[in-house]
Design goal:
With 126 residues, the chain is an all-alpha fold. It is 66% helix and 0% strand.
């Protein structure tokens, strides 16, 4: 998993962010977002790859203004690498989250994506 996280950050660092604020994933050979293409509205994930690219390239202001959850995701991906390497090297286990903590995390993610999605409608340009 640590290698996977490193690969994601390396790809984000290597790909030039799309100036529209979304569509950077197309530069990685992925198809355009179907929701954005056919409905001309952003999906909740439009701009995440662009935010990852901005963040990995050291531009947090652009990353957070593009997609706040993408910017946070990039930070979490980077922070996960050392923990995952320790787990791989020592065999120790990461502590499990309590049911209450998991519920809080899910709720926080849902609110974050909803806020990011609503904000995307203001700045989205197909």
């Amino acid at each position: 998993m640590a290698i996977g996280c490193m690969a994601v950050l390396l790809a984000a660092y290597a790909v030039p962010p799309d100036v529209r604020g979304h569509g950077t994933h197309e530069r990685l050979g992925l198809p355009p977002c179907l929701i954005a293409t056919f409905l001309h509205v952003p999906c909740p994930f439009c701009g995440m790859t662009t935010a990852y690219a901005w963040m990995a390239q050291g531009h947090p202001k652009q990353a957070f203004s593009t997609h706040p959850m993408g910017a946070l995701g990039c930070i979490v991906t980077g922070l996960a690498i050392p923990s995952l390497l320790v787990v791989a090297a020592t065999g120790m286990r990461l502590p499990a989250l309590s049911c209450r903590a998991r519920g809080f995390c899910v709720a926080a993610l849902a609110v974050g994506f909803i806020v990011s999605w609503v904000r995307a409608f203001v700045v989205f340009q197909p």
